Amino acid sequence: MFTDSHCHLGSHKFAPDELEALVARAAAAGVHRLVTISTTLEDIPRNLDLANRFPAIFACVGIHPCDVHQTPDDFLPTLRDFARHPKVAALGETGLDYFHPPPEGWTDDDYHARQREFLHKHFTLAAELKLNIVIHTRDRSGDQSFSDALDIYQPFASVVQAVFHCFPGPFAQAQRVLNLGGLISFTGIATFKKAENVLDAAIQCPFDRLMVETDSPYLAPVPHRGQRCEPAFARHTAEAIAAARQVDLPTFARHTESTAEKFFKFQI
Fold first, then answer.
1. CB under 8 Å to 184, separation ≥6 — which residues?
2. Which of 64, 103, 166, 225 lies 20 to 30 Å (CA to CA) from residue 7?
C-alpha cells in the first residue's frame, strides 16, 4: 500500500466528475491514500472539499511561491483557519521559485524577497500549529533557491520537518536536506532514462526520509511519460526505486508508508 504524498487533485486538468474513478484507480494500483496540495488561498476550499468527500484524500494548504504576488499581505490568519481543518496533513506547497520570471511590475529581487518572506511565515505557522511543511524549489541555473530555502528552514528544523518535493538533483544535494532532519520525495522523474542522478539519490536516501509522489497531473512516470499523470501512477515510481534499491515492493511500501504516516500525522 502506498501514499501519493503530493498530487493536485483540484487542478482543472481533473474534471470534478472523474474524481471518484480516479480514486478507485489509485486504490486498485495499491495507492490507498492521496495528499492533495493547494497553491493559492482560492483553491484551498476545493481541495478541502475533496478531503471531506473522500476518506482516502488528505489536504495540504499553502501559497505556492509563484503566487505570492497575487496573495494579500495579511494572508496568514486565513491560512491559519484553513490549516485547522481536521484533514489538513501539512502546510504547503510553499517554497522558492527562481526559475520563472517575475510578474509584470516586479523585479527578480522584489519577487524573490516576497517569496522568502512568505516561506518564513509558513514555517512560523507550521511551528505554531505543530504541522510539517511541503517545499518547492526551482532555479534557472545553480541552486540558489534551494540554498535559500535551507537557510530559512534551519532555525525551525528542531520543531518542523520539511519535505523537499519533486526532488530533481543528486544525492549530495539531498544530503543537505537530510542534515537538517528533512525528507525527500521522488516523482516519476526517477524513472526517466536521463535522470540517473535522481534515481541514485533515491537509492541512497534512508528509508525513513523518503516518500513517493506523482505531482499529478504533471510528470507522469515511465511507462506513461507524456500523458496526464494521476495518483495510480505512484506505483510505477515505487516499483522503479524499489528495483534500483534491490528490495521487494512490499518492503519498500512498508517503509515509505511509515515515513508518510509520521510526516503527515494522519488523524482520520
1. 163, 164, 167, 174, 177, 178, 201, 202, 205, 209, 210, 211
2. 103
Q: Give the per-residue pLDDT at 268.
A: 60
Domains of the chain: 2-264 (3.20.20.140)
The neighbouring-strand residues paired with 138 are 97
Q: Where are the beta strands (DSSP E) in 55-166?
A: 57-61, 88-98, 133-139, 162-164
Integer Cα distance of 197 and 168 in angstroms: 8
Buried b (16+ CB within 10 A) or exposed e, 98-125: beeebeeeeeeeebbebbbebbebbbeb
Q: How many residues does the chain have?
A: 268
Pairwise CA distance, residues 240 & 87, whole Å? 30
CA dihedral 127, 128, 131, 137 (to 10 degrees): -50
d(CA 7, CA 142): 26
Q: How far apart are CA 90 and CA 263, in angstroms?
A: 8
Beta-carbon contacts of 174 under 8 Å, excluding residues fewer than 6 positions away, are: 164, 167, 184, 201, 204, 205
Using one digit for the tens of pLDDT, what is the confidence trace for 36-50?
999 999 999 999 999
Kindly report the pTM of this predicted structure: 0.97
Task: Please name the residues in contact with 191: beta carbons below 8 A apart, sequence gap of 6 or more.
Answer: 199, 221, 222, 225, 236, 237, 240
What distance in Å separates the CA atoms of residue 231 and residue 60, rounded to the nearest whole number? 16
What the block records as the C-alpha cell of 119 is 516561506
DSSP 8-state symbol, 267: -
